[in-house]
Design goal:
140 residues, Thiol Ester Dehydrase, Chain A, two-stranded antiparallel sheet, 36% strand, HotDog_dom_sf, PAAI_dom, Thioestr_dom
């Protein structure tokens, strides 16, 4: 499917519609293969022991797939997560941002399915992976 929104448009949408988290993410330019979203790790993302919390990684995965879907269907604020399965594989590196590489597996009329690998910046080993399903708003 043709790309409908640029990284700049996705960033503007996220900051306007979700101001509580819009500044926490940097978005790469979407391409046919997917897109990458960076979580700018801050002290509020850490859990005891100095590692990035599971909820922060969940948010990164959710935002990455959401934005990838919007890059294909346009600014549809009512696309919602209906299912997620997430595996946490290793402790993220301390003091670096996390990168989520998202790709679409299916973009249907009613549902979209995506996959995300999360890595610490500078390390190729995944720290988490997620499979997500979204319900898409009706057209028209």
């Amino acid at each position: 499917m043709q790309i409908q929104m640029t990284a700049e448009q996705l960033t503007d949408f996220l900051r306007r519609e979700f101001p509580q988290v819009g500044e926490e993410f940097d978005i790469s330019e979407p391409c046919e293969a997917g897109l990458t979203v960076r979580l700018k790790v801050d002290h509020k993302h850490l859990r005891p022991g100095g590692t990035v919390s599971g909820p922060s990684m969940f948010a990164l995965a959710d935002v990455a797939v959401y934005l990838l879907i919007l890059s294909r269907i346009g600014p549809q604020g009512l696309a919602v997560t209906t299912n997620i399965s997430m595996d946490f594989m290793r402790k993220p590196a301390a003091g670096v941002d996390l990168l989520a590489e998202a790709r679409l597996l299916k973009l249907g009329r009613v549902l979209a399915v995506g996959d995300v690998l999360i890595r610490s910046e500078g390390d190729d080993r995944p720290v988490a992976r997620a499979s997500m399903t979204y319900s898409l708003p009706p057209k028209g």
